[in-house]
Design a protein that fits this description.
By secondary structure, this protein is mainly alpha-helical. It has 9 helices and 7 strands; from the N terminus they run H-H-E-H-H-H-E-H-H-H-H-E-E-E-E-E.
Length: 275
């Protein structure tokens, strides 16, 4: 029971994952004709390149790693929920669009320009993945969502090499969808625009909250006389867990502990225990 309670935040991922796979399977088997072909002139300018099949397949591990890392290793649970909500919004929008606006593409080459192990992998990809339900590109949307989550992660902010690797892999995955003729430029652009909107919704409030907390840390403290004549300056543990000298304290006789009173902008007070 303790294990279930500890990892209960993974339950939405499991439930939604089953729901998404069932819906996607339905779309793949029922939307086989009469769909709208998506094509732009830019698609004809992009050559087929089978080597991009490697980052294209790495997408599956990339997304799985991101959910597991932010769920198991990242201490900030808010960042985990930001990631899975972002992924869920994009994947749900994809299902709705595919159902209301059946779509597909005919960009795949009929004959490969070369024969090698990479074209064999692409051939297998074409056999298992239909050229329907391509708008917007989930490969692009989810990859960018992970890159944004990594970029905003407090735990990874001091690991620039790792963040750059994630960014580079994201760029390769985005390009792979077009160079493998799996998606049109329209699919990619739509996914990027959608992700920009969801990221503004999910990550801007966090920045605003951090700015507010920074302003609060700079707020002055009110000097309060304590009940037993202790000095006005006491060492207390603040909200960030660091011991600091604070001005103003009062004696809580019932609890038998010293507290520090901080004056905030809204005229309310916060108390922190003496240690």
């Amino acid at each position: 029971m303790k294990t279930i309670k500890k990892y209960k935040h993974f339950l939405p991922v499991v439930v939604y994952g089953i729901f998404y796979l069932k819906c996607f399977q339905y779309l793949e088997t029922h939307i086989t004709k009469g769909y709208h072909l998506i094509h732009t002139p830019f698609d004809d300018m992009i050559p087929f390149c089978e080597f991009f099949v490697i980052p294209y397949f790495m997408w599956f591990g990339y997304i799985a790693w991101s959910v597991l890392y932010f769920g198991f290793c990242n201490k900030n649970r808010r960042e985990y929920y930001q990631l899975i909500i972002n992924l869920g919004i994009g994947m749900t929008a994809f299902l709705v669009i595919s159902y209301l606006y059946p779509n597909g593409q005919n960009l795949r080459p009929t004959v490969f320009p070369r024969e090698n192990i990479f074209t064999d992998l692409v051939r297998g990809l074409y056999l298992t993945d239909t050229p329907t339900n391509v708008f917007p590109s989930i490969h692009v949307y989810n990859s960018v969502a992970v890159a944004v989550a990594v970029e905003h992660s407090e735990q990874l902010k001091n690991r620039p090499v790792f963040r750059n690797v994630c960014l580079g892999l994201t760029v390769l995955i985005v390009f792979s969808t077009m160079f493998l003729k799996q998606h049109s430029v329209s699919d990619v652009c739509c996914a990027l625009v959608m992700n920009a909107g969801t990221c503004m919704l999910l990550y801007r409030p966090a920045k605003a909250g951090n700015a507010l907390r920074t302003r609060e840390k700079k707020a002055k403290y009110r000097i309060v006389k304590n009940g037993n004549g202790r000095p006005a300056h006491q060492k207390v543990r603040g909200p960030d867990g660091l011991g600091r000298e604070r001005m103003g304290d009062e004696w809580d006789g019932s609890a038998g502990k010293m507290k520090c009173v901080r004056l905030l902008r809204n005229k309310t007070y916060k108390t922190y225990k003496i240690y």
